[in-house]
Specification:
By secondary structure, the protein is α/β, with parallel strands linked by helices. About 45% of the residues lie in helices and about 20% in strands. It has eight helices and twelve strands. Helix 6 crosses helix 8.
Length: about 230
Amino acid sequence: MEKLLIIEDDPSILRGLQMNLQLEGYELVLAHDGEEGLALWRQHRPDLILLDIMLPRRDGWEVLRQIRAEDAETRILIVSAKDQETDKVFGLSLGADDYITKPFGLAELLARIRAALRRARTGAAAELGFGRVEVDAVGRRVSIDGRVTELTAREFDLLHYFVTHPDRVFTREQLMSAVWGPEHFGTPRTVDNFVARLRSKLEEVPDQPRHFETVRGIGYRFSPGARR
């Protein structure tokens, strides 16, 4: 049974989410403010978090920053009445997996939860590949239609991070920290150059990338798409 942590201070919304998500078979942990949410996250390590932004004691932005500083894997869906595009961009740039505005339809929320959990289940375990590309994580080899394509060590590291975190939006700074390490003295332009190299080697049409997507104002997203 997959475990969800709901961090929400509105009692009526919390009750509604609790009732409907329990009917769907999820195990739930409930928090009423940001401080409690962080404590319960550390205690229970849920599979997914539904996070409100306007919370007492510690707001959702702070909660999101803290969790992402310690954990890059747990799926986090923001559920907020803040519906400006700038809020959505900011939430995604901090590491949220999705952003849903209130009021929301139950069917849409359930679909987004299922999609996020499905990506979490398949991201690390599925065969690593996309389009015509196969990625051998153990042998650190990449092939297109069975023919090996040469990548540098750092290019492979960036590719492996992308393919094991599909459909996630990352800032250049997040990619730099995850792939090059927090002590690396690079610039966001370094990430741009390496993404351009991956596109030139692995995209069918590098100038019209289908997999290594630019997300304007934020950074990049890897979309595996359908296998060929």
